[in-house]
Fold Phosphatidylinositol-glycan biosynthesis class X protein.
Amino acid sequence: CVLLDVQAACQDATVAQELLKEGFHRDLLVKVELGALGEDVGGCAVAARTRLPPGIYVDPYELASLQQHNLTKAMLIPDVIDVEAPEYLATDLLVLLHMEPDPRCSRCFRAALPVHGRYHRPAEESEDVLVVLKSPEVLICCCDNRLSAECWKPAEVEAPCSGKNVGPCRWYSVTHKPAYEESILHIPVGLRQHSSLVCVVTLLATVLCSSLVLAAVCKYGHFS
């Protein structure tokens, strides 16, 4: 009976993620509610660790700008990202997203992160592809609190703790129940049967624009 009570208390933590906006440029909103576990995490740092598939990425330059203005805090692994690479040449991206307390809920935390869809290969029939985001892992880092060993397990995270105290800290992972096991991102793609038309239109547009540039250079250019 005691074991069942401990498991119920551990599973009281919930995590949910939501993709805002439409198209290629979205915001990933992550919300965590610790429930009864929230009573033991005062002064601790809470983060969500999520793995982004190759079809979606975070722009490191955009992230650096947001962090400079204290609008978000996240760590990317790897930190060097080719933002121009298509989906079939990209790799997974691990994100450690630091969360802020939700003023409307004493045991709740939330954070948002801009994410972007990559270009995919043209499809045969469907005009969009599905990119699946798995539920993130909830992590906590405390320098001066003792966490329940039944609920919190040591996690391998090579990242500093953003808590109030400065000193050696360790990240822990909590067993939780996701509100949704996964989120689905719809990314528009081209159709293979339109390839010839796209090539012809692109070629004509290139020739037309090059002709206009050349005509302007010949008319207004100064040649020595």
Remarks:
- The CA atoms of residues 141 and 161 lie 6 Å apart.
- The longest helix spans residues 195-220.
- Helices lie at 2-10, 60-68, 195-220.
